């Protein structure tokens, strides 16, 4: 979105009111904004690409994850959902508030619309911490659409870690989850995650029915990360190559990341 088209106060007010209404409801998911605004679509797409992130801020690496997923999709013009978890909505999030992150997500979403062949981009929030619960909540709004979650290797480990489930219940939770969703997993080599061989070995150790819905892909975006953007802003450096134009505008407009959280 061109910066000149952004009315900062009205955008923040819109998302603040939407979050307040969501918090007062019993829903586990709510779509707050659909892009392009007021669009009326024909037949619904059969695939929903879900990027679940803190978006603090959204970066070009986030964008490339979406572009790569769209390019590899077997579905013409899938839909994209940018999902922000707000389960701790009673606490003041740092270093950027939830309404401000949602505003950046909207500008980021316009960039995706301009650059990717997608049916639309939605901005949504959830209070669900676990992926099976997120998928079930999302399904209430996007019935009949296969969900593709874009995640990192660290998330794959958690999804298939029995300690996050009541004893003996992991398969009974995972099976219905993978019936409605799949995981597109970006490899994260180095450090505690090990190398590609170790990460592929973990995937090969899954049950065959689990592997069918888990795709491993190479990392994109190089060293670009939200934490790197925040650090460069604190150092007074330009971040134009790390974030889109609209996101950069919000960083300057809201004076974000200039101090440690």
Automatic annotation (TrEMBL):
GO molecular function, one term: ATP hydrolysis activity
The name this protein goes by in its record: Cytidylyltransferase family protein
Bilayer-spanning residue ranges: none
GO BP of this protein: NAD+ biosynthetic process
Upper classification of the organism: Eukaryota, Fungi, Dikarya, Ascomycota, Pezizomycotina
Keyword terms: ATP-binding, NAD, Nucleotide-binding, Nucleotidyltransferase, Pyridine nucleotide biosynthesis, Transferase
GO CC annotation terms, alphabetical: cytoplasm; nucleus
Matches recorded under Gene3D superfamilies: HUPs
CDD domains linked to this entry: NMNAT
Pathway: Cofactor biosynthesis; NAD(+) biosynthesis
SUPFAM superfamilies: Nucleotidylyl transferase
Reaction catalyzed: beta-nicotinamide D-ribonucleotide + ATP + H(+) = diphosphate + NAD(+)
